[in-house]
Write a structure and sequence with these properties.
mitochondrion inner membrane, mitochondrion, 5-stranded parallel beta sheet, 52% helix, alpha/beta, translocation, HAD_sf, transit peptide, Rossmann fold, 355 residues
Length: 355
């Protein structure tokens, strides 16, 4: 009985509270449009401020990282510079470890270090750009030894060999057809020199493989070239040979840019096994030598502007052969006519017999 009475009392109090809340809501006037607009504007402004602060924090993060990276790069660069000056700025030492005096010993310590470092890198750059020696070849042979009258300078890659790469074998070099014929026909007439832009470590075994009979007289490598505008240039004036009797064969005109009328530019060999360019080259150079040309530049100048000098030579040679055959045919015809008239004259006017 007491529990039921308590339950009834709770229900009454709940109904009273609900009625009071409903009356309060009904008594409260609805919000005006201006108040709603202000509330929306305040919410939008607070949201924009939040986004702006987030964007500012986002831009501040990368800029700070960039500053830190720049500071670290600057410190590393400064440290590296100091280390380089310290290492390369000291005096050279002899076998016993004693310092070798130089022209910078009387300068202040810091100036000594800086000048020695500058000289070291200057000499190193000069070593890369300039040939290793002003005379790359020894003096020509003298009697009783035989010195060929001409010098032939050949590039290795693209002229005599073609590099090929495969997943199974890696890098391999293919010999161009006609190498043996070229060497055999020209060795008595030309001093054959391999002058390549490859390094000696790469080219030396390749030269051994293409010349088992020893037709090649000398070998020059990349360190003997002159580095100009990104190209390894072969300076003929450093060969210790008469430039009037030097022929350079390469697949890049930049290789003989200092002496353009001493060179024959071939198209790079693509590895075709039916190639006959070396045979044509042999015939071309053999013609120059057998005709005893005093200055090869006068001949090579005519072919300098040709896209394919050997093809132009073949066409000119064919034309000259046709002209020679025509001349011989006319000469033969003329001699036959003279013989006929001579025979007819002798029959019509026989010589009187001597008493």
């Amino acid at each position: 009985m007491a529990a039921s009475v308590a339950l009834v009392l709770r229900l009454r109090s709940g109904l009273r509270l609900g009625a009071r809340g409903l009356c309060a809501r009904l008594a409260t006037p609805p919000p005006r449009a201006s108040d709603q607009a202000q509330e929306i504007g305040s919410r939008a402004s607070s949201k924009a401020q939040t986004q702006g602060s987030q964007q500012q924090r986002g831009t501040e993060g990368p800029s700070y990282a960039k500053k830190v990276a720049l500071w670290l790069a600057g410190l590393l660069g400064a440290g590296g510079t100091v280390s380089v000056v310290y290492i390369f700025g000291n005096n050279s030492v002899d076998e016993t470890g004693a310092k070798i005096p130089d022209e910078f010993d009387n300068d202040p310590i810091l100036v000594q270090q800086l000048r020695r470092t500058y000289k070291y890198f200057k000499d190193y750059r000069q070593m890369i750009i300039e040939p290793t020696s002003p005379c790359l070849l020894p003096d020509p042979l003298r009697e009783p030894y035989y010195q060929p009258p001409y010098t032939l300078v050949l590039e290795l890659t693209g002229v005599l060999l073609h590099p090929e790469w495969s997943l199974a074998t890696g890098w391999r070099f293919k010999k161009r057809p006609g190498i043996e014929t070229l060497f055999q026909q020209l060795a008595p007439l030309y001093e054959i020199v391999i002058f390549t832009s490859e390094t000696g470590m790469t080219a030396f075994p390749l030269i051994d493989s293409v010349d088992p009979h020893g037709f090649i007289s000398y070998r020059l490598f990349r360190d003997a070239t002159r580095y100009m505008d990104g190209h390894h240039v072969k300076d003929i004036s450093c060969l210790n040979r008469d430039p009037a009797r030097v022929v350079v064969v390469d697949c890049k005109k930049e290789a003989f840019r200092l002496q353009p009328y001493n060179g024959v530019a071939l198209r790079p060999w693509d590895g075709n096994s039916d190639d006959r360019v070396l045979l044509d080259l042999s015939a071309f150079l053999k013609t120059i030598a057998l005709n005893g040309v005093e200055d090869v530049r006068t001949v090579l100048e005519h072919y300098a502007l040709e896209d394919d000098p050997l093809e132009a030579f073949k066409q000119r040679q064919s034309r000259l052969e046709q002209e020679e055959q025509q001349r011989l045919a006319e000469l033969s015809k003329s001699s036959k006519q003279n013989l006929f008239f001579s025979s007819l004259t002798s029959r019509l006017w026989p010589r009187s017999k001597q008493p």
